[in-house]
Each structure stands twice: as C-alpha cells, then as structure tokens.
Amino acid sequence: MSMSMAHQQLPTSSSSSSLRLVRSRARHFHSRHHHRSSAPQQSPSSQGQCWRLFAAKGAAAEKAVKSKWWEKVPEGGLDNLRDVSSTQSLIEELSLAEDRLVVVDFYAQWCGACRALYPKLVKLAQENEDIVFLKVDYDANKSMCKGLGIKVLPFFHLYRGSLGRVDELSASVSKLPRLRTAIQKHNTPRCDLQSHDKGAPTSPLDVVPELEELERLEKEALAEALAMGAPEPSKIPDERASKTGERSEEAAGAGASA
C-alpha cells in the first residue's frame, strides 16, 4: 500500500519533462498575448483622419506646383480681385459694381512687365477693398482687347458707374505711382448738391497730389524697378505689319532671283 502511494507521488522522468514543456508554452503564450493587448491600436476613425490629412497635404502640394504667377493670391483669397473671360462677363462685372470704382488690368502670361507688376496689383487690391479689380488675359480675349484699343501691356482701364470709362493708362512697376494717383483721383465720394453747398471738392483734380510729389514718387519707383531689373511695358506685336514685312521679303527675294 505504501509502495503504491509512493509510486503515485513520484512521477516518471518522461511525464515531468512533458509538464515542464506545457508550462513553458503557457508562459510564452500569455507573454505574447499581454504584449499585443498593451500595444496602442488606432481606431477606424483615427485612421480615416490620418488618411484625410495625408490627402489634403498632397492636394496642397500639387496645387502649389501647378499655380501660375497670374493666379497667385494671398491665403484666403481676395473677393475684389477677379478674372474676366469674355466681353459679356466684363459688362456683368461693371453692372454689379454699380457706383464702385473698377480697375481693369489687361495682361499677358508672356509679358515680363505684367509679371513684375502683378504683386503690386495684389497689394493694391488688399489696400482698397472697396474697389473692384478685374484681370483680362489678352491672348484669351484678343477680339475684345483689340476693340478696346489695347496696344501695350500691362494696360489699365478705370470705370466708375454711370460715368463709364473715366481713365486709361499704361503702368509698369516704375510707373506704379500713376496708377495709384488715378485710383485716388477717381475713387472720391460722389458730390451732390448738399456736399457742394458745404464746400466739398467739386472736381477730382482737387485731390490729386502735387506734380512735384508725383514726380518724386515716380523717380523712387523707377529706382526700385532698376534695382530689381523689372522690365518695361511690352508692345503687342502688330500682326498686319509682320505679314506685310513677310510679303516684302518674298517680293525682294523673287526680284533677286529674276
């Protein structure tokens, strides 16, 4: 009886090895399970948020690469700086502006003077939120530009309500004070009978800076333009003149061969 009990209390060497192996595997399993459960897991919502952030950054980078100089505006945009794509859209913009001053910038993508002046135009739009600034691409609106007599770029037209076109001028970086003066001249409050009786200015000329001051501003702008190497206004090639020159060269060549 005692021998059988002793035999039950002392396991064989093979069963002892099996028991140790089972315990070792159990400890290894619990260790791996604890490590996995303690690792942070992203919820589906956080994963979606990360993907949207990544996509937004990619779209912003792509937009920055594709952006053109004539399309650049400050972050947030400018409500008073818009593009005009046709004669009809120009008429609609002038009608919507009512009594506000409208400055129309005629430019071309290949025009170096237009490119140099564009940041200044954006700054003017920021400084004068009550003025509407419109951009007209010459190459995309040739018939309209020719009908308006545009022969040099950049060129500006200024419109004011029922008065229609009140001014026109060519303005590069060196001639920017001229554009500022024209804006100041034509952006004055309208005079009525009551303001006239109170002694308010009756002519836009009353608010134009003195000629000496204007000359000084132009000299400063010219010095700045020369320092920056800014180009002067670009003349638009005359298609008829170029065709006439080609015919003259052909005739001269034919005469020489004869």
TrEMBL record:
Superkingdom of source: Eukaryota
Looking at the record, the residues that make up the Thioredoxin domain are: 67-219
Cite the InterPro entries for this sequence: Thioredoxin-like_sf, Thioredoxin_CS, Thioredoxin_domain
Q: Where are the transmembrane segments?
A: none
Q: Which residue ranges does the record annotate as region Disordered?
A: 187-206, 222-258
Which stretches are tagged as biased composition: Low complexity?
A: 223-232
Name any one Pfam family assigned in the record.
Thioredoxin
Gene Ontology biological-process annotations: cell redox homeostasis
Cross-referenced CDD domains? TRX_family (cd02947)
Q: Which family does it belong to?
A: Belongs to the thioredoxin family.
Q: Which protein is depicted? A: Thioredoxin domain-containing protein
Native organism is Pycnococcus provasolii
Print the organism lineage: Eukaryota, Viridiplantae, Chlorophyta, Pseudoscourfieldiophyceae, Pseudoscourfieldiales
